[in-house]
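User: Need the bound-state model for pyridoxal-5'-phosphate:
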Amino acid sequence: MAYHINTQCVQAGYEPKNGESRVIPIVQSTTFKYDSAATLGRLFDLEEDGFFYTRLSNPTLSAVAQKIAALEGGVGAMLTASGQAASMLSITNICHAGDHVVCASAIYGGTFNLFNKSLRELGIEFTFVTPDADEEAINAAFRDNTKAVFVESVSNPSLDVADVELYAKLAHAHGVPLIVDNTFPTPVLFRPFEWGADIVVHSTSKYMDGHAVALGGVIVDSGNFDWTNGKYPAFTEPDESYHGVVYAEKFGKAAYITKCVTHMMRDYGPQQSPQNAFLLNLGLETLFLRMERHCANAMTVAQFLEQNDKIEWVNYPSLPSSKYFERCQKYMPNGCCGVISFGVKGGREKAMQFMDALDMIKLVIHVADARTCALHPASTTHRQLTDQQLEDCGVKPNLIRMSVGIEYVDDILADLQQALDKI
Ligand SMILES: *Cc1c(COP(=O)(O)O)cnc(C)c1O
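Assistant: Bound-state model below.
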C-alpha cells in the first residue's frame, strides 16, 4: 500500500526486523564481514546485493536514500557528501569530455561555477538559457552532442520558477534526460517526476536536514528514461571494470542510479557519512510539518513587507504580484519554499542599516533551516562588485534575501518592524 507523503517522511525506507532497533541505526563501520570468499566475489561482480565497503553503501545510507527515493517517487537514490557532489555526479554519470549540457542560467552560484568552470575544464560544454527563454530559445540551445538538460525548480537565490513540464518535453524531443535540482521546494511541495523530469538532485543541507547540522546531497532516479536510445553507450556496452556488466540490461529501470553508485561513487568517492545520514533522517521525519510552517510564515512576512512603505519591492513566487504566480500555483499550489527577497528603499546604505538593526533574525550565509536569517549580498557575498556590476548580475544593491524560519510568526514580524522603524 502506498502511504501519503507525510507518512513516508516519517516511516519510509526502514523496516526493522524482529528485535532490531526501531530507529535507523548509525552503522559506523567502513567495512562488512562475510563467511566465504565466493560470496564476497559475487558482491564485487554485482551478482548479489549486500554491503561490503561504505564508500559504495552502508545500511544507514541505504535506508535514508530509500526514504528520499520514496518521497520523490523514484526507483532508487544515492546519498552524497554535499549538494555539490550530487550535481557533479548527476552530470558525469552520463556526460564525458566532448559532450554538452543545456542548463538554466537561474541556478545556485556554486552549481554555476561547478559547471561553467570545473566541468568545462574537464571538457563538458554548457549552454545557459535565461529564465525568460521561450520554447524556441530553449530548443536553439541544443546541439548534436547534448546529453542532458539541467534546471532548478525554484532557483537559489533568484527564486525563478522553472517550467519543468516544458523543459521535460523539449529534453525528451532531443532524446536526453531532464535533471532537476529540487532543493528549495523539496518533494513535499513539488515532485518533478510527476511532470516528466528524469533525475532529481538535492542539497540535503537545506530544508531536508532543516536544522543546519549536516552537509549532504542526494541523486534520485525516476527509472523512466530510456538509456538504450543510442546516445548513451555507457549503459548499453559492457563495463569492463565490472566483468562486462551491461547496465541497461542487468539493472533495467535502475540502470542510471546503479551506475551512479558502482561507477561514480566507487571512483570519485564523495560519500555521505553515516552520522550525517542519521541526522538527515531526523530532519526528514518532520519535513512535511516544517515546510508547511516555512511557507505560511514566508507568505505572512512577504505580505507584511509588501504593505510597508519603506520597502521598494518583494519577490516571492507564491505572492499574487509575482510574475511566477500562475506557474507556481500550477506546480506548487501548497507553497514553494520559505525563502523570499526584498528591496529596502534608499539603496545599499539603508539596506545595511536595516540588517544591523535586526535582532532575533541573524545575519547568516546559509538558507533553509528552522531559524529565520537574512543576508545582504551587496555588503557580503557580492561586496567586491559596484552597483552597476550588481545590477548586471541581477542582484540589486538594496536586495535582502531572507530565509523565513518556523518561529512564531508575530515575533518575526516584530523584529522586522523594529528594524524598519530604526531606518
Ligand atoms: C546549497 C545548494 C546547493 C549546494 O549544496 P551544498 O550542500 O552546499 O553542497 C546546490 N543547489 C542548491 C539549489 C542549493 O541551494
